[in-house]
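Reopening this ticket.

The earlier resolution said the output was attached, but the attachment link was broken on my side. Pasting everything inline this time so it's all in one place.
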Amino acid sequence: MENALPPIPAKRYFTIGEVGDLCGVKPHVLRYWEQEFTQLRPMKRRGNRRYYQHHEVLMIRRIRELLYDQGFTISGARNRLQELAGQPDRHDDAPTDERSAEGAVQEAVLVQTPMSAESDGPGGWLPRVRQELREIRNLLDEPF
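Inline output:
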């Protein structure tokens, strides 16, 4: 189903309306998901307007896929994202606004990279993650 979603433009920040259009989700659903998924921390500016970054749009698409296409519950999707990212449960932790951009990119890539038994064969998933990180770094190096 993700193939039906429009491509994500090369922008630094996206409004909640733009993210809703890019991910096929209404803004009120995005606001709810922010409460349920601690990985979603859009920057808030004047008037509490939300601005999402590219990695958050990718994460929202992954959450949408887990909930709508794969039939996970909110709790199940939260657990699956933490599994995929290799992170402990951070549901009550402090905001992650202080994390480095590299950490955020790695988190987004890990959320996008399934780590099933089939993918752990020769070469495993680590080379794919490294390659995706290189591609993201190249994208970030391009002028806007």
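Reporter confirms the inline version is readable. The domain at 2-141 is CATH 1.10.1660.10 (Multidrug-efflux Transporter Regulator; Chain: A; Domain 2). Residues 54-69 form the longest helix (16 residues).
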